[in-house]
Amino acid sequence: MHSILIVDDDSTARYGMRRVLEDNYRVLEAESAAAARRLLAAESPGLLLLDIEMPEGSGLDFLRELKAQDKSPAVIMITAYGSEKIAVEAMKSGAYDYLPKPFEVDELRLVVEKALDHLDLAEENLRLKRQLTSEGQFGAMLGATEPMRQLFELADRVAAADVTVLIEGESGTGKELLAREIHRRSNRGAKPFVALNCAALPEHLIESELFGYEKGAFTGATSQKRGKFELAHGGMLFLDEVGDMSLATQARLLRVLETRKFERLGATTSLEVDVRVLSATNKDLTAEIAKQTFREDLYYRLRVVLLKLPPLREHKEDIPLLVEEFCQMLAAKHRRGPITVSREALAMLMSCDWKGNVRELKNVLEGAIVISRDDVLQHEDMSADFLARQVPEAGPASFLAAGDYREAKRQFEIAYIKTKLREHGGNVTRTAAAIGLHRQSLQEKLRELGIQAERQ
C-alpha cells in the first residue's frame, strides 16, 4: 500500500484530506517541515501533499530542499486561490502537480492517483533497467562478461549521485555511450546533455566553446555566443579527451568546478551555472601529471568516481553477443534480411586483437554486410585491409597454433603468399611464376584470402 504524507499546519485541512484518502492509502500527517523531515526519515512515504504556506518557512523552500536530495518523494503542492504564479514556480522546482484551494474531493483523488501511477511507472522502469544491467546491457552498451557487468552496475549506482565522473578507456570502447546512459538514468536526464571533444578543436577555440564569448571579444566575434557550460545548465556536460586540454584551459575549468561561476570571453560579469561534469580520456592522466601536462588538482576534481572501460581484447567472450546485436542493427539500417556470421568467421573475429575496439568491430561488420550478397557472412566478406592486418607476423610456423585444419591452411597460405609477394616487390606476375601458379590463379587466391598486392 502506498504511503502519503500530508504536510499542513491546519489540522482541519489535514483531517479533510486524510478522510478522503485513508480507505485506499496509508496516510501520515505532519504540522511542520521539521515534523515532516522526521517522518520522511522513518517512514519513506512515496508522495507528499505539501501546503505552500508553512508556519516556519515557505513550502516552496521545503520542496527545493527535498528535490536537492538524491532520492525524493513526489510532491503535490496545495496552493491558495489565485496563487498560480507560485504554483508554476513549484512545478519548475520539481513538484509533480498542484491543487488550488478549495478543491473538490474527486479532484484530490484523481491528482493523487495520477501521481502514484507515475511513481509506479518510474519504479518499474528502474527495475527493468537494473535487470538489463545485471543481464549485460547498459543502454546501448552490451557485455555479459564479469568486467562489463561490474562496470555497468557501478555506473548505474553512480548515475543517481550528482558527482563528477572520469571515464578511462581506449578509443572505440564506448566512453560517450556510457556517459549518455549515465545522464539518462540520472535526475538530470530530462535536461540537456552537451558534449565537447577537446581533441577535435585547436587550443585557442576550446575556451570559447566552453565558456562562450561576447560580441567584439576578439576578431571575428560579431555576435554573442553561449558556451557549452551555459547550454548544459541544469544538465550534464561531457568533456571527451579531457587530457588534451591546455594547462591554461585546465585552470579555468578547475575554477568553474570549484565556484560554479564563469565569465564569457570578453565579459566583465560572472554567470552562475548548475552543471554535472563527466569527462573521458584515452590517456593515463597520472602519467600526464608526472610529465606536468595535466593538473593534479583538476584530476582529483574530475575523478570523484573513476570508471574504467576495458578494451575489447580483455573481454573477447562478449564478441558473439556484440556481433549478433550489430548484425541485427546493421541489417535493418541497410534494408537487409536477417544476417548471421559463419562459425569460421566468428572464430576469426574472436581471434583478433581489435586495436580499434568495439567501434572497429562494428565498422568491419558493416563493411561486410554492405559487400556480401549472402545472409551468412564468411571471413572473406571482411575487407581486404582488415584481413591483411590479422596475418601473424611471427613467421610461417605461426599457423601451427591454429586448432582447425582449414584455419591452419588459410593462415599458411596468407603467410606464404605475402612473403613471396614481398620477395618480388609486389609483382603478381613474377610471384605467380616463382611459385608455379598461373597469374589468374594467384589473383583469385589473393581475392579469396583478402590480400592486397602492393608494388614496392
Widest beta sheet: strand line-up: 2-1-3-4-5
Helix/strand structural class: alpha/beta
Number of strands: 18
CATH topology of the largest domain: Rossmann fold
Proportion of strand residues = 5-15%
CATH H level, superfamily name of the largest domain? P-loop containing nucleotide triphosphate hydrolases
Give the overall pLDDT as a whole number. Answer: 87
Shape: elongated
Q: Can you identify the CATH class of the largest domain?
A: Alpha Beta
Total discrete domains: 3
Total number of helical segments? Answer: 19
Tell me about the largest β-sheet.
Answer: 5 strands, parallel
Integer-rounded radius of gyration = 30 Å
Q: Give the low-pLDDT segments.
A: none
CATH architecture assignment of the largest domain:
3-Layer(aba) Sandwich
The end-to-end distance, rounded to whole angstroms, is 79 Å
Question: Level of helix content?
Answer: 40-55%
Looking at the chains present, what oligomeric state does this protein adopt?
Answer: single chain
Describe the structure.
It contains 19 helices and 18 strands. By secondary structure, it is of the alpha/beta class. A five-stranded parallel sheet has the order 2-1-3-4-5, with helices on both faces. A five-stranded parallel sheet has the order 9-12-15-8-16. The protein has a two-stranded antiparallel ribbon with strand order 6-7. Strand 6 (137-138) and strand 7 form a beta hairpin. The longest helix has 30 residues, at 105-134.
